[in-house]
Each structure stands twice: as C-alpha cells, then as structure tokens.
Amino acid sequence: MSQPAGEADRGDQPAATLGLWDAVSIIIGIVVGTGIFKTPQSVFANVEGPWQGIACWVLGGVLALLGALCYAELATTYPRLGGDYVYLTRAYGRQVGFLFGWAQLAVILTGSIGAMAYAFGDYAVAFWPGLESSWSVWLAVASVVALTAMNLLGVVCGKAVQNVLTVVKVVGLAGVVVAGLAWGDAAGLAVKKSTAQVGFGLAMVFVLYTYGGWNDAAFVAAEVRARHRNIPLALLLGTGGITLIYVLVNLAYLWGLGFEGLRRSSAPAAEVAQLAVGPSGGKAICLLVMLSALGAMNGLIFTGSRIYVSLGADHRLFAWLSPWDRRRGAPVRSLLIQMGVALLLILAVGTPAGQGSVDWALSQIGLGPLPWEDYYGGFNTLVAASAPTFWAFFLLTGFSLFILRAKDAGRKRPFSAPLYPLEPILFCGMCYYMLFSAVEYAKGLTLVGLVPLAAGVPLYWLSQAARRRGEH
After folding, report:
1. Contacting residues for 236 by C-beta, under 8 A, at least 6 apart
2. Does 5 score more than 50 pLDDT?
3. Could you give phi then psi for residue 32, rounded to 5 degrees?
4. For the segment 311-329, what is each residue's pLDDT rounded down to a tens digit?
5. Quick one: DSSP state of residue 15?
6. Which residues pair with 325 in a beta bridge?
7. Where does the pLDDT of residue 83 fall: very low under 50, low under 70, confident under 90, or very high at 90 and above?
8. Using an 8 Å Cβ cutoff, are 321 and 310 in contact?
9. 3-state DSSP assignment of residue 8
10. Which among 67, 116, 402 has a CA at the least distance from the CA of 216?
11. Which of 148, 167, 206, 451 is most buried, judged by most C-beta within 10 A?
12. SS3 of residue 367 by DSSP
C-alpha cells in the first residue's frame, strides 16, 4: 500500500543536483517574465502619485517575502518533489492533493506555459519584419517543443538553459534601468497627485500578479543540495532580488517617462530604450521580452513536470507519470505529457478554430460561449478563468502550515518561519484578497475555470477504485 505524500521520506527521489544559484535562477527566471513590461502602466494608472506606485512594488515584495518564509519551512520539512501537492496532501488528504496535481496538469500550469509561449510568439512576429501574425501560434508551439526537448536531455541541460536565460534577462533589464536613469531626469519622481479615479487595491492586483511564481521552486525541493540551507536562502534571495529588480525598473520608467508618461505608456520599456538608442530600442526590447518569456517557460517546464512524478507515485491512475530517468536526471514521461497538454491548450484557446471548439463543448453543458475579446484574447481568458482556482489552492497551502504545525508537532523542521504565526496570517490574507479579486474580475468565467477541477473528482474515484483492486 502506497503512503500519502509526506507520510515518509521516499526512497525514489532524484539525485540532488541543484545548487543555491540554480534555485535562485529558477525563481527569478519564472517570476520575471513578461509582466514587468506590461503591468507598470496599469499599476501607476491606479495610484495618486509616483511614490505611491513604488510603494506598491515594495509592498508586493514584502508580501512575497513573507510567503517565501512559509514555503521555506514547508519545503525543508517535506522535501519531496511536488511542492504544494505534498503539503496539501499531507494537510488535507489524498483527494485535495490529487485535485491540485490534476488542475496544474489540466489547465493552470500548462496554461501558464502556453501564455508565455504566446507572448514569445507575438513578440517574435514583431521582431522579425515580414512575418505574418498567423506565425505567432506556430512560434509558440515551436518554443514549447524546443524547451521541453532541452529538458528531456536531462537536469544539467535544463538548469544550464535556465541559468543562461536568467542572466541574459537580468542584464537586459539592467540596460533598461541604465537607459532610464541616464537619459531621463528626476522630474518624473516629483510628488504630484493624479486627478483621475484611482484604486490602490486594483494596483496591488497587478503587482501581485507580476510577482507570481516564486513558490514554484518548492516543486524541485528534492533536487536541491543541502536543502535545509539552500531552499530558504534561495527563496529569500530570489524574492529579494526580484523586488530589487522591479523597484529599479519602475524607478527607471518614472525617471525616463515621467509619472503621466508612464500612466499612458503601453510599452514603457521600449520607450525608455528608445531614449538611449533611438528606434532600434523597440527591437531590443522585443528581443528582451522574447528571452524573458523563454526563461519563464523553461522554469515552468522544469519545475512543473516534478509535480506529476509525485502525483503518479501516489495515485494509480497516473502511475505511468512517476518514472524518473536516473541517467538523464529527468522525468521524461511527465515532461512529454506536460508538453502535450500545453500544446493542446495553445491550439484550443489561441486559435479561432480552437476557440470555436471550446465554445461548442461548453455550450453542451450550458456554459458557452466565452467572452474571448472581453479578456484580451484566448490565453488571457484562460488565465482569468483559472486564477480563482489557483489562488484557492495557494490559500489552502497557507493554511496548511498551521495544520501541519499541529499535525506533525514532533517532526523536525530544519527551518521555521521566524515570526510564526505572523507570516502565514499575512500570507493567507494576501491569498484571500487575490482570490476575491480574481473572482470579481473573472465573474462568470470562474465557473468555466472550475470545469477542469470538477472533472478531477471522477478521475480521483477511478484512481481510488484501481488502488483498492490492487490491494486485494
């Protein structure tokens, strides 16, 4: 009889091949995707002045840091592959863990991979003259296939690709900071108040969205060397580094474009780059966004595939996902099925034919058609629909720290949240706020996002039935 995740340290865990900076690179690579190039306009459009906007970015970093302290305790105490899957199963039981893993595979994590792939495709079309917009979908498909192939070569190749993309991304953003500070002026930071309607809460929604993903490093906890030291350090250094990057980049935007200029700009990084190098600055930023999207995709592909290994080890229905190729140091089957689902989502929600098929399928259960254009296209619609489920699971993970402190009071904790219970209280408050905001934004789409989750319930029953048959 197999034990639930977290019941014991399992002997089928992979070799610890990731160092401190590998883990930090994963965190920065996943979080610093395309958001920092798009969301600042929305953040500053909802605050009264420049310093209130900067305060939002600092507050977002503080909240991410508090969450990182919670995850540092969970990841060092339960260092199995799968992160949240392990904690949720241990705290709430097999069904909740199963539904989390299933939701990640069916739509949440694979959808994030697809969204980043489409961002890459869109900017690639803008970067190369002559390419028609229809090429975007095929460039998105090619990027997912190529990065998955890199990870199939093994953990060494996967982490090398991640490290290179992260370094290039950080260097590129440093160039944006230099351009803004050197070619702009301090007038952009002058204290002034906007007469337009503002909403601090909405500004924080965009900020916290841009910080999303730092927790994914917990998925690879079993692969980190000296995890009792390196996991907490990676989470703290990663979130701290991201906060520093975001604050500096936004200061550069303000310095280069001014408060009102940033509020009006849909492409602030490109406009700042043009201050330094002229029209070619737009091309440079297209390339930087492409590389940022690739870095985020690779991090998601690398970490996400680890969830399904633990899911397969604990649940017979997905047992075929659990094998680990020790020669390559990679979960080959999990990587392949993750790629397949991501490609299916790209074609299903990112193309007119696919959207028509989704609308038809949803209409059969009384939920279609979807308001695709209201949410700026297929993948933004998917993100909006799945966001409430994502934040609900995130909230459950926050509560799991309280539950596991009581349930496993005698278990050794290599790292403990230093200000407990302050960190999980504030972290859960942030998750609740984002869950409420996500539901308010998605409205009826929330029901559509629950469809994949609901489909996981009969799958769990089938898995349990197979498990009982195997015991007799």
Report:
1. 65, 68, 69, 72
2. no
3. -80, 80
4. 999 999 999 999 988 888 8
5. P
6. 330
7. very high
8. no
9. coil
10. 67
11. 148
12. coil
Contact 198, 259 (CB under 8 A): no
Report the chain's C-alpha Rg in angstroms: 22
Nearest to 159, CA basis, from 308, 325, 16 = 16
Instruction: State the Cα–Cα distance between residues 292 and 307, nearest whole angstrom.
Output: 23
CA torsion 371-290-283-58 (nearest 10°) is 80
- When the pLDDT of each residue in the chain is averaged and rounded to a whole number, the result is 89
Tokens representing 416 are 């403990």
Domain spanning 20-342, CATH class: mainly alpha
Query: Both tokens of residue 84?
Result: 């949240």
Look at residues 296, 254, 311 and name the one whose alpha carbon lies nearest to residue 84: 311
Distance CA 332, CA 325 (A): 7
Q: Count the Cβ atoms, other than its own, within 10 Å of residue 41.
A: 20
Give yes or no for a contact between 246 and 61, defined as CB atoms under 8 angstroms apart.
yes
- Which residue bears the tokens 């993903």? 213
Q: How many helices (H) and strands (E) does the chain have?
A: 18, 0
CB 165 within 8 Å of CB 29:
yes
Left if phi > 0, otherwise alpha if psi is -120 to 50, otherwise beta: which for 383? alpha
**Residue 18 dihedral angles phi and psi, to the nearest 5°:** -95, 130
Residue 381, pLDDT score: 85
pTM of the shown model: 0.90
Domain coordinates of the chain in residue numbers? Answer: 20-342
Neighbours of 373 (CB within 10 A): 10
How many C-beta atoms lie closer than 10 Å to residue 470's C-beta?
11
H/E element, 338: helix 332-349
